[in-house]
Amino acid sequence: MGPLTGLPAAEAARRLREEGPNSIPFAKRPGTLTIALEVLREPMLLLLCAASTLYLLIGDLTEALVLAASILVVIAISIGQRAKTERALEALRDLSSPRALVVRDGVQQRIAGAAVVRGDVLILADGDRVAADGRVLAASDLMVDESLLTGESLPVEKDAPGAAERAGRVFSGTLVVRGHGYAEVLATGARSELGRIGRMLGEIAPEKTSLEVETGRVVRLVAAFAVGLSALVAVCYAVTRGGWVEGVLAGLTLAMAILPEEFPVVLTVFLALGAWRIARRDVLTRRMPAIEMLGAATVLCVDKTGTLTENRMAVKEVFAGDKREVLAYAALASELAPFDPMENAILAAASLAAPEAVEWRQAWRLDRDYSLSPAFLAVCHAWRDAEGRAVVAVKGAPEAVIAACRLGPAEAEALLSEARRGAERGVRILGVARAQWSRADWPADPRDFPFRWLGFVALADPLRPTVPAAVAECRRAGIRVVMITGDHGGTALAIAREAGIRTEGGLLTGAELDSLPEAELAQAVRGVDVFARVLPQQKLRLVVALKAAGEVVAMTGDGVNDAPALRAAHIGVAMGGRGTDVAREAASLVLLRDEFGAIVDTVRLGRRIYDNLRNAMGYLLAVHVPIAGISFLPLVFGGPIVLYPVHVVFLEFVIDPACSVVFEAESGESEAMQRPPRDPHEPLFSRSMLAASLGLGAAALLAVVLVYGWALLAGRSEGELRALSFAAVVIGNLALILAHRSRSRPIFATLARPNPVLWWMMLAALAALGLAIYVPPMAAVFRFAPLGAAEIGIAFAAGLAGALCSEGWKWYTAGSRGARTG
Ligand code: ADP
Ligand code: MG
């Protein structure tokens, strides 16, 4: 078969325009009406509707209208928020769609699966999903799993033209499990078999996270409490003050004030926007729980080649042999159309030093291709030259090639130590050998060729420049970086040293991973950070051992054989650029940019998201204490009522954006990477978090109660008393927001941290408070009387008192934390 040129780019673009993208329409995204109906079922809105109706019943038209108007605002905000979340998830789905390798204008290129058009030449390789339906043009040992379409679990062999109907075709969405080949696209998108069934692949799994479960529990608990207390208040009110309608209204007000409907909203918003933020750093979240796990990761297991290094190989030198001969045979032992940067580097070097090899590769016939196998880490090619004579070339791991040459022990040992010395310089060393063969058939095992030693090739693959800094950052954050490589131990240690990965623990090999008993292995992996000569399938044992040692493991991978380890790790990370679809589907995160820095970025974001979520939840808990208290206490003790439904609505308009937008935008990343990972078993609503937040809330309540009591004793009018207490609640609320921006850092230290939304919201809240107190028609709705400067001062002092308590608390916990760790 001649070289394939594929479609010209212009023609592909035209077809894409005319025939549409190669994608299957998604399950319909909820329309505005569906969202609106869902929003209407939220308890807050039901309560508002009930309250508004009751006001109508007692003939208070203004109050009823104000509440009705606020219902509209709440609906608008909720829909906006939902739409934002949906959009974030939608963007993620687009990114998660598969990618395809095609030939266009004679060059291979990776394009989005959706951009594949009819007539494209697809390159099929093991581990990838077929991007569209097509006709097989060429196949070598091609096996495809079509269970998705047929339910048949055994892979089907595919063959080039002339083959039976089904064997000559490949179908969109099916999985190449072995071999490789080319196919010409016949049908895309909805016209493919898969499209006709209308099934969707690789969608983001809406798994329930442990945070959701935990939040659900807290919400049910608080809700039960809120309902009970509200009923009690309604009855008390009716009995002590008379009037059932007013009693029910008081109960509804309290329920509105303390029903925890924000908690699940905050969770969804934080996770969805978190996934979106992570996507902006070119990392795709496939499973939501990964986001909360990330901040807890204690070990990052990363591949050396391509992740820590550039995967931009170059031949550095040739030694222990004749340069020309070594490069010529190394080139003969490279693939015809190589993907591997290492093989491309060898070909580039050979075309300069041994140009005849490049001609041979074109003129001769590659008769037998022995690919890399775990048993023999080398690639061996058996050629027939122009006269039909056999020429056999091999290149691969020095141990493997030297063993295959069957040298005397002294000579073999001398070569091996030369390879070791080379590897210590951080380069990859390959051994090269050749063989003659006169029999007509080829042996089954390449090691049966009588190889003659030729020499070594040394290839350099430079470390990515950002890696040392990123490794150092991980160390400061209490995260171990573990290097895994198929390369020689010497090379691995040299690169690890350069990257700043701990090498004092020495290294373990894949063979040792396999042979050590489980208990010993779990012990051994505690101290070792470099793993060499590891086969992908051995990574699984490493993950299991690390987990047994109590670590939270993130693991990278790209190949088909990496999938079990990716699935077993707490956080499986697939390398999207060169990763196979199998690896992507097994992983919970996919890196679109294959480099270590992206992983560290994601960990940093993961910690930030978790911190912000915890702070928002803490704030929510805290802020409900003064609100519940000040609506409840006057009823019990018979004082004037402070909070009516309008007041609660006012407060909700501050609390909602605060907990979802303001806290979500907090960028406490730098400080998040200066402490050890959190304990994954510690719940979000931990005892210390509950104590801190409820304690702060209680302090804020106390301040408000003192203000209320003072106004009462000083004989202020009811309007003044209410305005004063409400101002104290609002300002205390704002102080609680500031106090919850950071769990450990004092407020003044966080003031400089940019968060424009925060300041706009503060300003808006204070302005609204001013309007409510000083603009007569509004003051009438809120039942306020204007306050003097002294009273405003008192309200501020009360609010700030709550914040001061928080500083005391942080100082105290920082002290005890310091005492524990120091
Ligand atoms: P890494 O973890 O660095 O990607 P691999 O698992 O790809 O390492 O490769 C492991 C070893 O197998 C290499 O050190 C090399 O000795 C050998 N090897 C890999 N690819 C080839 C190849 N294309 N030709 C010959 N030998 C290879
Ligand atoms: Mg590799």
Q: What does the average pLDDT come to?
A: 87
As laid out across the biggest beta sheet, the strand order is: 8-21-20-19-9-16-18-17
Oligomer: single chain
Low-pLDDT runs: 201-205, 818-822
Shape: elongated
Number of helices: 32
Strand content: 5-15%
Which ligands appear in the coordinates?
adenosine-5'-diphosphate, magnesium ion
Rg result: 34 Å
End-to-end gap? 70 Å
Largest sheet: 8 strands, mixed
Give an overview of the whole structure.
The structure is a single chain. By secondary structure, this protein is of the alpha/beta class. It is built from 32 helices and 21 strands. Strand 11 and strand 12 (about 380-385) form a beta hairpin. Helix 9 (about 260-280) runs antiparallel to helix 24 (about 595-635) and helix 12 (about 325-330) crosses helix 13. The radius of gyration is 34 Å and the shape is elongated. The relative contact order is 0.08. The model is unreliable at about 200-205 and about 820 (pLDDT under 50). Bound molecules: adenosine-5'-diphosphate and magnesium ion (MG). Adenosine-5'-diphosphate (ADP) binds near residues 304, 377, 396, 485 and 487.
Describe the secondary-structure layout:
Elements: H1 9-19, H2 32-40, H3 43-57, H4 61-96, E1 99-104, E2 107-112, E3 121-125, E4 133-145, H5 147-150, E5 156-157, E6 169-170, E7 175-187, H6 193-197, H7 210-241, H8 244-258, H9 262-280, E8 283-285, H10 289-294, E9 299-303, H11 304-308, E10 314-319, H12 323-332, H13 341-353, H14 355-363, E11 365-370, E12 378-384, E13 390-396, H15 398-404, H16 409-423, E14 428-435, E15 452-460, H17 467-476, E16 480-484, H18 489-499, E17 507-509, H19 510-515, H20 518-524, E18 530-532, H21 539-548, E19 553-557, H22 563-568, E20 571-575, H23 581-586, E21 589-591, H24 596-637, H25 645-662, H26 669-672, H27 687-713, H28 718-739, H29 747-751, H30 756-774, H31 776-782, H32 789-821
Parallel strand pairs: 9-16, 9-19, 16-18, 17-18, 19-20, 20-21
Antiparallel strand pairs: 1-2, 1-3, 3-7, 4-5, 4-6, 4-7, 8-21, 10-15, 11-12, 12-13, 13-14, 14-15
Helix pairs in contact: 2-4, 3-4, 3-8, 4-9, 4-25, 7-8, 8-24, 8-25, 9-24, 12-13, 12-14, 13-14, 15-16, 16-18, 20-21, 24-25, 24-27, 24-28, 25-28, 25-30, 27-28, 27-32, 28-30, 28-32, 30-31
